[in-house]
Amino acid sequence: MLKGSIVALVTPFHEDGRINYEKLKELLEYHIANQTDGVVLLGTTAEATTLSWEEQVEVVRFGLEVVNKRIPVIVGAGSNDTAQAIKKAKQFSSMGADYLLTITPYYNKTNEKGLIAHFEAIAEASTCPILLYNVPSRTGMSISLHAVSILSKHPNICGIKEASGNMSYAVGVSQYCNENFILLSGNDDIIVPMMSIGGTGVISVLANVCPKQVHTLCEFCLNENYKAASLLQKKLLPIAESLFFETNPIPVKAAMNYLDFQVGGYRLPLYEMDETLLKKMIAILDENKEMIF
């Protein structure tokens, strides 16, 4: 079962926009050394939509080789084109991914039956388990609780990354959780509430800069020490909120560069962070240095 702090890893770039594989290796080793429990490659935070097919395949190949089964590797394999998502599922699962993360269709939003058919087709194409990804703020649609109830029974669908921020919806999802279908928080600001209703961990942007702290927070929850977890959640909240002053991953990459991770810039349409917001975020990072690393 997936559990703990799973980092939604950034993709580091050289100044000319090429992927910096030396830095990617460094980041993966850093997370393994700092108790991160799993890693997501090609997620939203990785700017996956701006990577070519060849780059995506190489990132997965390289990442799996570096990690070498030391922690689980989840690969973003979603698309609003089911055929394209199936292609990704077949490719990345055959390469050795431990799990795939599959988003709801965006732009060409479907109905409930189409959504269920979409996820079932991906699950049946993959040789590794898949996680559903619910993030309506980006896709414009949510996975209905009825759809979750059906999909949770599929033998190759193992859980859901819930990133709507709606705790009422999350509680509804939790009723379908068991040893074969898990709930992961997709929001760093509500890790404790999500895990208190049965979540097993978080897919975290915050873990890019606070890996040990997010791991510890999840451990507290898994051990049902919610008093300590709540205190740590509150301490981490200013940093977590600052990483979403603008669209992810703009702030987290800016924060990592300020902290000397040297992960480089962005690919358009993502752009440098607003100067006023950058200064505000840096002030928060400086005020909370004891929580970083």
Structure overview:
The protein is of the alpha/beta class and 293 residues long. It has one domain: Aldolase class I (TIM Barrel, Alpha-Beta Barrel). Helices cover 45% and strands 13% of the residues. Strands 1-2-3-4-5-6-7-8 form an 8-stranded parallel barrel, surrounded by 6 helices. Helix 3 runs parallel beside helix 4 and helix 11 packs across helix 12. 45% of the residues are buried.
Write out key terms for the chains shown.
293 residues; alpha/beta; TIM Barrel; 12 helices; 8 strands; globular
What is this entry, summarized?
The chain has 293 residues and is of the alpha/beta class. It contains 12 helices and 8 strands.
Reading the helices and strands in chain order gives EHEHEHEHEHHEHEHEHHHH
What share of residues is helical? 40-55%
**Mean pLDDT figure:** 96
Q: Show unreliable segments.
A: none
By CATH reckoning, the class would read: Alpha Beta
In angstroms, what separates the terminal alpha carbons? 26 Å
Order of strands across the widest beta sheet?
1-2-3-4-5-6-7-8
- Compute the gyration radius: what is it? 18 Å
Class by helix and strand content? alpha/beta
- In CATH, the architecture is Alpha-Beta Barrel
Instruction: Give the CA-based shape.
Output: globular
Taken together, the total number of domains comes to 1
How large is the count of helical segments?
12
Topology, please?
Elements: E1 4-8, H1 21-33, E2 38-41, H2 53-67, E3 73-76, H3 82-95, E4 99-103, H4 112-125, E5 130-134, H5 136-139, H6 145-151, E6 157-162, H7 167-174, E7 182-185, H8 191-196, E8 201-204, H9 211-222, H10 226-242, H11 250-258, H12 275-287
Parallel strand pairs: 1-2, 1-8, 2-3, 3-4, 4-5, 5-6, 6-7, 7-8
